# Entry
Amino acid sequence: MFNQLKEDINIVFDRDPAARSMFEVVTTYPGFHAILLHRMNHYLWRANFKFMARFLSYFSRWFTGIEIHPGAVIGKRFFIDHGMGIVIGETAVIGDDCTLYHGVTLGGTSWKKGKRHPSLGNGVVVGAGAKVLGPIDIGDEARIGSNAVVIRTVPAGATVIGIPGRIVNTDIAKPTPEQEAMAKKIGFDAYGAVQDMPDPVAVAINGMLEHIHLMDVEMEKMCREIKSLGGRVQVNAVEEICSEPVDDGTGPRCQEKQD
# Structure
C-alpha cells in the first residue's frame, strides 16, 4: 500500500513540471486526492460495502471536482492533471501509466447493466475535454486529442482527434510546393494546424489541390497544341482563381499583379 502511495506521489513529479515538493503534492493536488480516495473506495466496493463506497466517492467528488465510480478499476501510476470535471464510470478499466486531463469523460452509451464503459490500455493519454464512450478498447500508448469524441476501438499507438474521433497518421508527407501554391491561390491556409497532428480533412484537400494543379498543367498543354494546329482558344473562358477578389463595378475579379 505504501509503495503504491509513493508511486502516486512520484508520478506527479514525472508528469507535472509545476510540482515543487512532496508537501505541495499531498496538500494541493486534487488529482492525487481523488486517486487516493478512489483506491480506498474501490477496496470497500470489492468488500461489498457498496453504500459506504458510493457515499465516500460522493464526498470525493465534492472535495476534488473529480467523479470516479468506486467500481472502476485503475492501474498503477495513474495521473490526473488539473482534474476538474473528470468523470469515470463504474465499469471503466484504466491500465498502468495513464494520464487524464481536465474535463475527460469515460462514459457509457447504454442503460443496460454489464460492461458499458471504455477500457484503457497502458500508457494512454487522454486530452482535456475528450469523451471516450461505450465498451470500447483504447490500445496501449494511444493518444486521444483534446475535445475528441471516441466511440470506436482505437489500436495501440494511434492518435485520435476530432468529432467523431478519427485516427490520424503522424508520418504524413508535407504538402508539395505545387499544393502550397494552389492553396495560397484559393485562400486555403490549414497547413500550420497539421504539423504535429495532421487532420484527414486537410489530407483530402491536399489531394484535391494536387489534382487541380495537374489539370491546370494538362489544360495549358492542350491549349498550346490546339494553337499550334491553327485552332482558336478563348484564353479568358476560365476565370482566374484568387483568394481575395475585388469588385470594380463590373463584377468581382482578381487584383492585377504589380511588378
Confidence is low (pLDDT under 50) at residues 189-196.
